[in-house]
Write a structure and sequence with these properties.
The structure holds two protein chains of two kinds. By secondary structure, chain A is of the alpha+beta class. Chain A is built from ten helices and ten strands. In chain A, the strands form two sheets. Chain A has a five-stranded mixed beta sheet with strand order 3-4-2-1-5. Among the domains of chain B are: about 35 residues; about 110 residues, MutS, DNA mismatch repair protein, domain I (3-Layer(aba) Sandwich), CATH 3.40.1170; about 90 residues, no CATH class. Chain B is built from 19 helices and eleven strands. A six-stranded mixed beta sheet of chain B has the order 3-4-2-1-5-6, with helices on one face. In chain B, strands 7-8-9-10-11 form a five-stranded mixed beta sheet. Chain B starts with 8 loop residues before the first helix and ends in a 10-residue tail after the last strand. Classes of the chains: A alpha+beta, B alpha+beta.
């Protein structure tokens, strides 16, 4: 159900500026099992370059999933990041499972047959390649032991028959082994194929299929505010805060703030401020808290206008 | 490093090592001229070993090694340290009480039985006083604490069990000593000054390191021919031939004259002035008034009164009884701008009660329990006391509403969830702060008894404190990060 990158092609993380034109605007964000994912490297780099959205790479090797230091695509977006992109009209959410199911159901008979034939062909190719490989392996192993293949007998009988002819014909018949392949092809059955992507058979969903806005935690206003100021953010769980806030691209800068979003009237423990301030100070950052300014009058007066956000940074003073 | 040593030192060193090889090593050193380099000396020494044909070869090597080490460290004469007080003697009593243990019973020595009998009889006739003095303290609602102002009580409470904290000091109430020292009257150093000295040393070290770095860069540039033999790095920066200015790493940001106090020849103006002030003859006649008092937390106070009985708390010249105090402390346990007198019974999950239960639990087990606000936790547990060890554990008190009563009605469920549940961010923050401070994080769950209120009835009714406290249960839960790389044997 991957978006558009087939699993067979090797993903490269180098941004391809020329391919930016090919990125659909707004671009789709796959919503799979509660996660917001991006599968296309070009889209990932575009979102990072243009919209200050970094996300977290979560892709690993399926059979070596304990390798979790260097991760690749897909990129998981925080719900806040997805929400900001959708609210600003740069992206839309696609419920991938739903789109896949509906798309497959809606296929016409010809299309489906074509797809099945295509899969059969691919399966056959795979099976052929497999058998060829196995044969090569066995010949190699036999050769190492100084033995010859049984088929060689028939080969030799062929050649002995061909001795009567010219020498060149002998080498020609030896070079191609048509009998062996034709025999094995009869036995071969196509390998069953599970397609890794839904978007070569189906067409990429368009923006009007967009679903509802992503659900976000209550710290979202702070995120939106920081994003609007041009900051980059990363999840800050390891620093005990909601976001670690970078003044520019996270590869170039250290983060400046450890931000925690609160409701404006929310009560919080003084100990949390001490802990946050202490921790942030220790890692040369500042602890930042902020929330949406909400008052009863505002709610009544302006319906859906975005309320302002106020932030406070807390730093250790040397007394 | 061309280390040159005077010839006399190895003899002293060998005297430390042992006496039987002393002739050999002294012979070695006696032969040495006063200005030989290390490698020369080693050769001479080896030759001597061969000549002597003794089993002391290893020792000679050792002597030389220790000599090498010594010559490095001893070059800068160490500052004479002010003698620290003998903490073992000072804090011999773990609680502000006098105890009279019976003499030891030795089975094969009948006199020991006699001694025990004598002390038993004498104790029963002349009862020894365990409470030599009842300290006085004053309730202070503004600071949410209880103040002790009598200097003798302050010292006694601090020395015997590390109770409270000085209002003008970090913990040990030593503002007066510090003040005297600042004015040049007294010479003993307080812990704050130790810290300051250590910080100064560290700053000096950093400046020296920066200087060394700068010299290395200059050397490198000279070798590459980018810098003349006489010119300095600053010229190069000024000419903008060096694009990446190393200023940030090399210079203290606030110093107008970079690296000025590294050389020590030119002291800053502030230093000069402070020196001049210090040199002025101190006025011994002025009696400095001790403006510091000891602040006890509510939990400490309640333990001292209810469990030990060595303290009396006054409010408006009236002695407060433990039951009154419990109510008073619960009223002031949360910081609220307005006073909140508790009319009815006290809530069973009042923050004061929860904290006190944990305090009582660990104090009874022999830990020295002190407030942990500086590490964003509730309590810090010290083995013997802060003068002896760093705190071992950081305790976070979490109420636990696991009794069936708390899930009877939806309101109660909602209430207990709001009190007990914390988010992961809170926990990671706490854990990280503690691991940075090398403390073990201990989550202490206090089982809140199955009633919203203590069974006290009205305000005037007497409260059986012991029965109420017995209803609480404490669970300890140690949290440690286990990473395979750091926990390999």
């Amino acid at each position: 159900m991957a978006d558009s990158t087939p699993a067979t092609s090797t993903p490269t993380m180098e941004p391809d500026v020329a391919s930016e034109a090919t990125i659909p605007k707004p671009f789709p964000i796959s919503h799979i099992a509660g996660r917001y994912l991006l599968f296309d490297v070009n889209v990932i780099s575009y979102a990072r370059r243009t919209h200050n959205i970094t996300g977290v790479l979560i892709g690993t090797i399926p059979n070596l999933s304990q390798q979790n230091v260097f991760l690749g695509i897909p990129l998981e977006l925080q719900p806040e990041e997805a929400r900001v992109l959708v609210e600003q009209g740069h992206a839309f959410i696609v419920d991938d499972a739903e789109v896949h199911r509906k798309g497959m159901m809606a296929m016409s008979r010809e299309q489906r047959l074509k797809l099945l034939r295509e899969m059969d062909r691919e399966g056959m190719e795979l099976a052929k390649a497999e058998s060829r490989k196995a044969e090569e392996r066995s010949t190699k192993a036999l050769k190492e032991k100084g033995l010859t293949r049984k088929e060689k007998k028939s080969d030799e009988s062929n050649s002995s028959a061909a001795v009567e002819g010219s020498e060149t014909s002998l080498f020609d018949s030896k070079g191609e082994t048509p009998t062996a392949v034709s025999v094995s092809e009869k036995k071969l059955e196509p390998v069953p194929i599970t397609p890794t992507t839904s978007y070569p058979p189906l067409t990429t969903p368009s923006a009007n299929a967009a679903s509802q806005l992503p659900d976000v935690p209550k710290s979202y206003p702070l995120f939106r505010y920081l994003h609007s100021k041009g900051y980059f953010t990363m999840p800050g769980l390891r620093f005990g805060c909601h976001y670690s806030v970078y003044p520019g691209d996270t590869l170039r800068f250290h983060s400046h703030y450890l931000a925690t979003g609160l409701d404006f009237d929310e009560e919080f423990e003084l100990q949390d401020v001490i802990g946050g301030g202490r921790l942030a100070n220790r890692v040369k950052k500042a602890y930042l808290i902020g929330g949406e300014v909400t008052s009863e009058n505002d709610k009544e007066a302006e319906g859906d206008e975005i309320a302002p956000v106020r932030t406070f940074s807390i730093e250790w003073a040397a007394m | 490093m061309g280390v040159q040593c005077n010839a006399g030192r190895p003899v002293q060193r060998s005297a430390h090592g042992g006496t039987q090889h002393q002739p050999l090593s002294s012979k070695v050193t006696a032969l040495l001229p006063t200005t030989t380099t290390v490698s020369d000396r080693r050769q001479v020494a080896m030759a001597m070993v061969v000549e002597a044909q003794s089993a002391g070869a290893q020792t000679t090597e050792d002597v030389l090694k220790s000599d090498l080490k010594g010559s490095n460290t001893d070059r800068a004469p160490k500052k004479p340290r002010a003698k620290r007080p003998n903490f073992n003697e000072l804090h011999a009593k773990p609680l502000p009480l006098d105890v009279y243990p019976l003499p030891a019973f030795i089975p094969h020595n009948p006199i020991s039985i006699v001694r025990i009998a004598i002390s038993l009889i004498s104790h029963s006739i002349w009862r020894p006083k365990s409470h030599a003095i009842i300290h006085k303290a004053y309730f202070s609602p503004e600071t949410q604490s209880v103040h002790v102002t009598d200097p003798e009580s302050i010292r006694a409470l601090w020395e015997h069990g590390f109770w409270g904290a000085g209002s003008l000091s970090r913990s040990d109430p030593r503002w007066l000593d510090q003040e005297k020292r600042r004015r040049g009257i007294d010479a003993a150093a307080t812990s704050e000054e130790w810290t300051k000295g250590r910080r100064d040393e560290r700053r000096q070290m950093k400046l020296e390191r920066a200087k060394a770095q700068r010299e290395a860069i200059e050397q490198q540039l000279r070798e590459e021919g980018k810098l003349g033999a006489e010119s300095k790095l600053e010229d190069l920066v000024g000419e903008e031939s060096v694009t990446e200015s190393p200023r940030g790493t090399l210079y203290p940001a606030d110093a107008a004259n970079p690296l000025g106090n590294v050389t020590g020849t030119e002291g800053s103006v502030v230093k000069e002035i402070s020196k001049a002030i210090a040199e002025e003859s101190p006025d011994f006649d002025i009696e400095i008034k001790n403006q510091e008092h000891l602040q006890l937390t509510f939990e400490e106070t309640f333990f001292l009164i209810y469990v030990l009985g060595v303290l009396e708390v006054y409010q408006d010249d009236i002695t407060l009884q433990p039951t009154d105090l419990l109510r008073l402390f619960c009223e002031h346990s949360e910081f609220t701008p307005t006073k909140r007198p508790i009319q009815g019974p006290i809530a069973s999950d009042d923050p004061f009660l929860l904290n006190y239960v944990v305090f009582h639990h660990f104090r009874s087990l022999g830990w020295v329990v002190r407030p942990g606000i500086k590490f964003a936790c509730d309590w810090l547990l010290y083995l013997r006391g802060p003068a002896f060890h760093h705190a071992e554990f950081a305790v976070m008190v979490i109420p636990s509403y696991s009794h069936a009563y708390w899930s009877e009605t939806p309101e109660l469920v909602e209430y207990s969830k709001g009190k007990a549940n914390k988010d992961w961010w809170w926990f990671h923050r706490l854990n990280r702060v503690q691991s940075q401070a090398h403390k073990t994080l201990m989550l202490v769950y206090v089982e809140v008894p199955p009633s919203r209120h203590m069974n006290t009835g009205g305000k005037d009714e007497m409260l059986d404190i012991g029965a109420a406290l017995k209803k609480y249960r404490v669970r300890e839960f140690i949290w440690k990060r286990w990473s395979p790389n750091r926990n390999r044997d």
